[in-house]
Design brief:
Blueprint (H helix, E strand, L loop, with lengths): L1 E5 L2 H18 L4 E4 L6 H12 L9 E4 L1 E3 L10 H8 L11 E2 L8 H15 L4 E4 L21 E4 L2 H7 L12 E4 L2 H5 L4 E5 L5 H9 L17 E6 H10 L1
Helix pairs in contact: 1-2, 7-8
The structure holds 2-amino-2-deoxy-6-O-phosphono-alpha-D-glucopyranose.
């Protein structure tokens, strides 16, 4: 596992964006695995800047997002489709037809999971997958206890994850209780994985990721079995590791 410790959030975001730009320059039809949440926002801002400054051309890339809330339509401001369109896609030269996100507003949830796993196999796997991490070690929406063998599936969100994400909603009651997420096995299909973490809130999870064993109760630990994983964190997220080491 490569570990890069950036001084702060800005430096972490710039480094992540440069890695993606290099990947796209090397392979213009790159498949990018993308994540939502507060953490990658800075990376997306930098990518938009990179596009404006002619460092990146997204015309031929395809994207596969990790997850989506069940019950939210793509136009819902808290849906992950809306998030990606408004924080990245609308500002770069990407064809929306080349962007893939699970469809959460359906009754046919099992069918949607199968369809999405097929998308990953047909279009992917991602050459580079960007990941965030939840305080409880979740990746995508794979909560503690998820099988490392899982493919795209429906999850019941834990109260702690709903609370952590409630800041984006009017109030807790509007936070969906279920989501569709790429499974652990689907995520591990990616050729290269870059996990971002920023801030003290993530320090315990980063400590456990670096020093702990493979453990289904801590989904991010599954990444330890992948042979090309980079942990790109800022000093605050790395704090506890340094204190012990
Ligand atoms: C959500 C997303 C994850 C993300 C996590 C952390 O649960 N499904 O993909 O990594 O939140 O979010 P944040 O970056 O806002 O801390």
């Amino acid at each position: 596992m490569n570990v890069i410790v950036a001084r702060n959030y800005e430096e972490m975001s710039q480094t992540a964006s440069r890695m993606i730009e290099e990947q796209i320059t090397k392979k213009p039809d790159t498949v990018l695995g993308l994540a939502t949440g507060g953490t990658p926002l800075g990376t997306y801002k930098e990518l938009i800047k990179g596009y404006k400054e002619d460092r990146a051309d997204f015309r031929h890339i395809r994207t596969i997002n990790l997850d989506e809330y069940v019950g939210l339509a793509p136009e819902h401001p808290q849906s992950y489709r809306y998030f990606m369109n408004h924080h990245l896609f609308q500002f770069i030269n990407i064809d929306l037809e080349h962007t893939h996100i699970p469809f959460g507003k359906t009754e046919e949830l099992e069918q949607e999971c199968k369809r999405y796993e097929n998308v990953i196999d047909r279009i992917g796997p991602p050459d580079l997958q960007l990941l965030g991490i939840g305080e409880n070690g979740h990746i995508g929406f794979n909560e503690p206890g998820t099988s490392f063998d899982s493919e795209t599936h429906i999850v019941h969100l834990t109260e702690s994850t709903r609370e952590a994400n409630a800041r984006f909603f009017e109030s807790m009651e509007y936070v969906p209780t279920k989501a569709i997420t790429m499974g652990i096995r689907s995520i591990l299909k990616s050729r290269k994985i870059v996990l971002l973490a920023s801030g003290e809130r993530k320090a315990e999870a980063i400590l456990r990721l670096i020093q702990g064993e493979l453990d289904e109760q801590f989904p991010a630990s599954s990444l330890k079995s992948h042979d090309d994983i980079t942990l790109l964190v800022d000093e605050d997220a790395y704090k506890k590791v340094q204190r012990k080491g």
